[in-house]
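A brief tutorial aside. Many learners find it easier to grasp structure tokens once they have seen a single protein encoded end to end. The record that follows does exactly this for Probable membrane transporter protein. Read the sequence first, then the structure, and try to relate runs of similar tokens to stretches of the chain.
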Amino acid sequence: MMDAHWTIIILIGAVVGVVVGTIGTSGAIMIPLLVFVFGLSQTSAQGTALLMASCPLWIAPMLVYARANHVEWRLGLLLATGMAVGSIYGAKLAMQLPTVFLKRGFALMLAAVAVRMFFQR
């Protein structure tokens, strides 16, 4: 892991926070950052990103969207319920898979989403 001063780590987190508040995603940004900047393994990056996601820090920017009536509460809460159950099985599966498979799978998922969004009207 990169041995960075805590202020640098917080500054990087703040930059990611601005991006997350702007485009609404964290794992797609944080996981590569943890791997390439901080030198974590793919599985450690995924676990660390999940730790950050479990903190209630995304409530504040979500409230900005909620005040503008851009939160689908029922859909979001139902999806979160399914994610809570499915993520347990996904985490157990990730512990059994080779790291290269996880990295490539993550990269392919990001690329597929990026291509679809780029060509969407």
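Self-check: The mean pLDDT is 85. If you spotted this yourself, you are ready for the next section.
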